C-alpha cells in the first residue's frame, strides 16, 4: 500500500476563465460533472487541498490531467486543449 497523498481534498471549479461565472465547491470524487453540477465545461479551477485527476469524459474515462494545489486560470494551465471536464477523483495514495 502506498503513502497517503493528503488528508483533505478541496477544489473549486469555475465555468469561465480567470475564476469567473458559475462556481462549484468539491471535496469528493465525481463520476459525472454534468449530472452532479449541471456543468459541461470548466474553464478555470483552484485546488486548495490535496491532488486530483480530471478526466475529459464521465465515469473516469478519457484523457487524464493531474491537478495539484494551485490556481489554474484557464483549462490550458492543466494541459487540456478543451475545457470539457467529464469527471474527477481525488488522489488518495501514491
Automatic annotation (TrEMBL):
Example GO biological process: visual perception
Repeat found in the keyword field: yes
Domain Beta/gamma crystallin 'Greek key': 50-92
Taxonomic superkingdom: Eukaryota
Database matches in InterPro entries: Beta/Gamma-Crystallin (IPR050252), Beta/gamma_crystallin (IPR001064), G_crystallin-like (IPR011024)
A GO MF label: structural constituent of eye lens
Keywords (A to Z) from UniProt: Eye lens protein, Repeat
Keyword check for Glycoprotein: no
Family in the record: Belongs to the beta/gamma-crystallin family.
Name of the featured protein: Beta/gamma crystallin 'Greek key' domain-containing protein
Source organism per UniProt: Etheostoma spectabile
Amino acid at each position: 500500500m502506498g503513502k497517503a497523498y493528503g488528508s483533505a481534498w478541496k477544489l473549486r471549479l469555475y465555468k469561465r476563465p480567470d475564476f469567473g461565472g458559475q462556481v462549484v465547491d468539491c471535496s469528493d470524487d465525481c463520476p459525472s460533472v454534468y449530472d452532479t453540477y449541471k456543468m459541461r465545461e470548466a474553464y478555470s479551477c483552484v485546488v486548495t487541498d490535496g491532488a486530483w485527476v480530471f478526466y475529459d469524459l464521465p465515469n473516469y474515462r478519457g484523457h487524464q490531467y493531474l491537478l495539484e494545489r494551485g490556481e489554474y486560470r484557464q483549462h490550458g494551465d492543466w494541459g487540456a486543449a478543451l475545457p470539457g471536464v467529464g469527471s474527477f477523483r481525488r488522489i488518495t495514495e501514491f
